[in-house]
Amino acid sequence: MKRTGEIVLGIIGALVYGFLGIIGGAMIWLQNNEALLQESLEEAPQQGGEISAEEFNEVIEVMGSGGTMMLVFSIIAIILGIIAMIFLKGNKRPKVAGIIFLASAVIGFFVFGIIFGIMSGVFYIIAGIMCLARKPKTVIEA
């Protein structure tokens, strides 16, 4: 049985995780460029007035830790997706591949939050369900 659909969904899911990894890397880069961040915060229209130094430092810390978490998990999810696709190649271990896809998507849901978690994990969830649900056709001999 060919598993082309699952592999294509796995590739699309890995690309989405790669995009989130790029966003995480950009957040880390922005954290390291405090002057650029300070300049952009000063130029943005503030409704409540100026931002304090404590709030600015909190924004930088949250951005760095969130970016690191996004980047690390995105890399892990991409690697797990590649491993699952290798298991699917030639229909070797579709059940294990389905469990890997589903576990990556569920963990990603908790790591990235509701919006990014659903966006990134939907392809892995569909691929995982397809891996677990599709059964090979049995040939009945007369």
Estimate the helix proportion, in percent.
over 70%
* Amino- and carboxy-terminal Cα gap: 22 Å
Shape: rod-shaped
Order of helices and strands: HHHH
- The chain-level structural class is mainly alpha
Mean pLDDT: 81
Biggest β-sheet, characterized? none
Q: So how many helices?
A: 4
Query: Which strand-content bin applies to the residues?
Result: under 5%
Q: Can you tell me the residue ranges where pLDDT is under 50 for at least 5 consecutive residues?
A: none
Q: How many extended strands?
A: 0
**How many whole angstroms does the radius of gyration measure?**
21 Å
Task: Provide structural commentary.
The protein is an all-alpha fold. Helices cover 81% and strands 0% of the residues. It is rod-shaped. The mean pLDDT is 81.
Compose a concise summary of this entry.
81% of the residues lie in helices and 0% in strands. The chain is built from four helices and no strands. The two termini are 22 Å apart.
